[in-house]
Specification:
The protein is an alpha/beta fold and 368 residues long. It is 48% helix and 12% strand. The strands form three sheets. Strands 1-4-5-8-9-10-11 form a seven-stranded parallel beta sheet. Strands 2-3 form a two-stranded antiparallel sheet. α2 packs antiparallel against α4, α4 runs parallel beside α8 and α9 crosses α11.
Length: 368
């Protein structure tokens, strides 16, 4: 294996694998997006969000844009979690001001029974081409993260016909309780599709992968384990964990999943993502050294003054490290937001955040 397979800046990968690091790495969910004027210009040239996602050259362009502005420690593929159900034939489209919609949501039993997992190298070829293009453009400077939605989160969109949160998940939860056989069929097929999709991204060049369980926190305690966690565990077990001689770490993030941290840590992933409602220090005590942790600044903190942004960043870092700061040098923490960055975020505050994470964690390592 060529030594060039590992990026020049591999601190993100080392932190996920709980190896020693010089500082805490940082990247941001939705770091390529509407808060950047250059992204809006590229999207305008693309004509639409879906056209942007499906053009590998433009997807590569917007993936790299935040790395040109900020000293981020990882790039994340520019795409959308709904590419998988779109490839299943549900007819994804984006309505102005209303978000994603499906022309053919899963409501009828025959349609659910007919659901099949797409071949990612055929029906999602544009994603794999984008991954390969981005890897070439990065020149192995920082790692590239691939991703997918979780089966439960994708099912919420597929059954509701749009975002489940807009309708308090009424349709999808009715199916879950009334016809669990149909819900399990959707989740079974989707888990196969997600596993294949993430493995294809790894084969195309993704160096870490993340599962976004954005709506898992909407489930009851029992339903979460049966209808979300069990399927993510199956996906993690089916992932390629090594490629080109390098370990490929896996991150699992359930928004609103703080109460299930131990259970998520037990499914075989390398890292657990946390939203801003969890305390990192407490989470670290609960999971020990079983997994790394990712998170978890409140995205709204980025609207505060620069000095307050810096203070909040330091607070999150110190929460993970503990009073003695001993955790910083041992790895195990990837700094991120507790959810995606808002489109209204001032870019200058993102720079303050990234620079503060690096400088404060370096000082903490020196003290440790």
């Amino acid at each position: 294996m060529s030594p060039s397979a590992r990026p020049k800046n591999d601190v993100f990968l080392r932190a996920l694998l709980r190896e020693p690091v010089e500082y805490t790495p940082v990247w941001l969910m939705r770091q390529a997006g509407r808060y950047l004027p250059e992204y809006n210009e590229t999207r305008r040239r693309a004509g639409s969000f879906l056209s942007l996602c499906k053009n590998p050259q433009l997807a590569c362009e917007v993936t790299l844009q935040p790395l040109s502005r900020f000293e981020l420690d990882a790039a994340i593929l520019f795409s959308d979690i709904l590419t998988v159900p779109d490839a299943m034939g549900l007819g994804l489209y984006f309505a102005d001001g209303e978000g994603p919609k499906f022309e053919r949501p899963l409501r009828e039993e025959w349609a659910i029974r007919d659901l099949t997992a797409p071949d990612p190298n055929v029906h999602l070829r544009y994603v794999m081409d984008a991954v390969a293009e981005i890897r070439r453009a990065l020149g192995n400077s920082v790692p590239l993260i691939g991703f997918s939605g979780s089966p439960w989160t994708l099912a919420c969109y597929m059954v509701e016909g749009g975002s489940g949160s807009a309708t308090d998940y009424r349709t999808v939860k009715t199916m879950l309780y009334d016809r669990p056989d149909l819900m399990h069929h959707i989740l079974d097929v989707t888990a196969t599709a997600v596993t294949d999709y993430l493995n294809a991204q790894i084969e195309s060049g993704a160096q870490a992968v993340m599962i976004f369980d954005s709506w898992g926190g909407a489930l009851s305690h029992a339903a979460y384990r049966e209808f979300s966690l069990a399927y993510m565990q199956r996906i993690v077990a089916g992932l390629k964990r090594e490629h080109d001689g390098e370990r490929v770490p896996c991150i699992v993030f359930t928004k609103g999943g703080g109460q299930w941290i131990e259970a998520i840590a037990g499914i075989g992933c390398d890292a657990v993502g946390l939203d801003w409602t969890s305390d990192l220090g407490e989470a670290r005590r609960r999971v020990g050294d079983r997994v790394a942790l990712q998170g978890n600044l409140d995205p709204m903190a980025l609207f505060a003054s620069p000095d307050k942004v810096a203070a909040e960043a330091r607070r999150v870092l110190d929460s993970f490290a503990g009073d003695a700061g001993e955790a910083r040098k041992s790895g195990g923490h990837v700094f991120n937001l507790g959810h995606g960055i808002s489109q209204f975020t001032p870019p200058e505050n993102v720079k303050v955040l990234v620079d503060t994470v690096h400088s404060h964690s370096r000082r903490g390592s020196a003290r440790g």
